[in-house]
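Appendix B. Extra example for self-study. Work through it before the problem class; the solution is given directly after the inputs so you can check yourself.
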Amino acid sequence: MTISSCMSSDHTRCDDIFARAEEACTQGDWERGAQLLGDFVTALEAHFASEEDVLFPAFETATGMRSGPTQMMREEHRQMRDLLANMNSALSQRDSANFSGGADTLLVLMQQHNMKEENILYPMCDQALGASDMASVLQQRIGTTNPA
Amino acid sequence: MHPNLSFDQAPPFSVPLRFFLLAPWFGVAAGILFALEGSDALVSRWTNAALTLTHLLTAGFMLQAMAGALFQFIPVATGANVWRPGLVASVAQPLLVAGLVLLCAGFIRHDSALFRIAVPLLVTGGGVLAAAWLLALWQTPGKGATLTALRFAVLGLVVTIGVGAALADGLARDLILPYATLTDIHMTWGLGAWALLLLAGASFYVVPMFQLTPPYPLWLTRLFAPAVLAVTLLGSLRVTLDQKPAMEFTQMLPGALLLLLAGLYAVTTLNLQSRRRRRVSDVTLQLFRYSMGAILSVVAVGGLALLPIDGSQLRLAPLFGVLVLAGVFVSAINGMLYKIVPFIIWLHLQRYGASLAQVKLVPNMGVMIPSGAMLGQARMHMSAVVLLVLAVWFPALSFVAGMVFAASCAWLGWNLIGAVRRYAGFRRRILAASLQIT
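Solution. Structure tokens for the complete assembly:
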């Protein structure tokens, strides 16, 4: 298992939960939507934490690149967290227009973020950290912090 | 390690936006011209009205929108940095617009002397853009099918402009050239290698992304760009070397293969979209599916044209033009603009809001263009394409068809302007809130 394969498959898992949450809310099933959005936040935060606490610091130490790609990825994590907070408040107010606008924005942001990680950053991580047991550490973190 | 790697999300806001805001108005001009001269334009592809219409849509609407999209798309999809995008856009856009206006004026007024001014403007404008993009696309350490498709597409643009310039220059100087042959080459490179490759290359990236579909099959994404380029090249060589009647099998083969490749891309895209994990539909998806459906119609029309039958009653040539330009490319671009413009507005407001600690005031992208306005405009566009197709057989409809197409393009332009006005409004609110705090 590589860092790329482990983290990329976690992206797909998060995407799936997102799509189900969005569909439930769009169909007016707010209770199920709230539950699924909660699952999505849990999965996403576990993914972010594995990157921000483990992968990015290790990459920065190994390459000396502290202000480049990882900083941009952290900034995009912040943007996604802001959007999720807005979506949660739209959900609690049953505001479907605001919710779907937020979901649309989050999807585009999240997907282009994933593409940059999967096409560029993760392969760089594999190159810099491939000899370590980083992939299994990440797998364990994602698995244990998020049993969903 | 990766010295030229861009992790930034976007070029300066004004770079793609200036192209996106201008593009629809070339569609308005084309619609009005079709309304006034449609019956004349549909007589043959060689009428001045038909040539003007074609260039308003290709070198106007399509090139403007595709240029804006490439400036935005290249850094995100390939990790490449375009050199000084603001400067490149500021130089290239006025040259392209002035060149196109003179080219169209030359067609309409039967004044080929105007081409002498138009050609250097278009060549310089297009050359500056292509050079900046190619430099970025060849320097990036990124890999993948989208990158290959973009590289080949921009090469396709270079050949399209080069052959087009030779044609216009030949007309201006009354040279004896094989005009019909060169026009076929110009058209095949423009529609095949440039436009189709750019559309497909972008699709490989954004279709799975926006709808959470399975990825395109690896064999298709790997083979598509080299195959389109090879077939286009083969077609040009056949057209150039073989002056015998066009019905020979070898003569028809490149055209048939290009249609087959376009059809394969459309069927694959429709299939992937039907298997999307994100079930929620939106106007971008609808327009994109409409565009893919139009490709399948083009394949049918092109297939008929390749059969050894007299197609003049079916009016296949103007039908092909209407379906390719309005049906395939304007539809796909229309849908793409409704996703990309609200998103880049949101992105820039986010940055602005974050820099002034006012992120909470940043709205989501759904606020930028009302969904009812997007849906209404998309339906009007789809109706316009149907009317334009009908006008090919019933020229009496051309006034209505042209005006509906012009109105739908104007509505698109107005929706985009509205988005920018909302952006300015939110910026003012964010600034005011930050001043109140300090």
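Self-check: The first helix of chain B runs from residue 14 to 41. If your reasoning did not lead you there, revisit section 3.
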